[in-house]
Design brief:
Length: about 90
């Protein structure tokens, strides 16, 4: 089931700046039980919301530095800790 854009933006707003799970957002925003959380997480990129793979906090996509070595986006703080160059 594809989530409407409006709902997706609400999920993004709910998650950014927190370390809550996609599942938390699904229950808090009452998106229903048939939501695929993996798909939802991928769709969140469309509303500028991405998880830092290291600390598990949600950020705006532009705030993360992609690291091939770590397999995803890293926030500035994690880049510091891991010695990854942050641009
Ligand atoms: Zn981080």
């Amino acid at each position: 089931m594809k989530i409407e854009r409006e709902k997706l933006e609400q999920v993004g707003e709910y998650l950014r700046g927190t370390c809550k799970s996609v599942g938390d957002a699904v229950s808090a925003l009452e998106l229903g039980e048939d939501v695929d959380e993996t798909t939802l997480e991928a769709d969140l990129l469309d509303v500028d919301t991405e998880l830092c793979v290291q600390c598990g906090w949600w950020h705006e996509v532009c705030e993360l530095e992609y690291s091939e070595q770590h397999g995803g986006g890293l926030c500035e703080q994690c880049c510091d800790e891991l010695g990854v160059e942050f641009n």
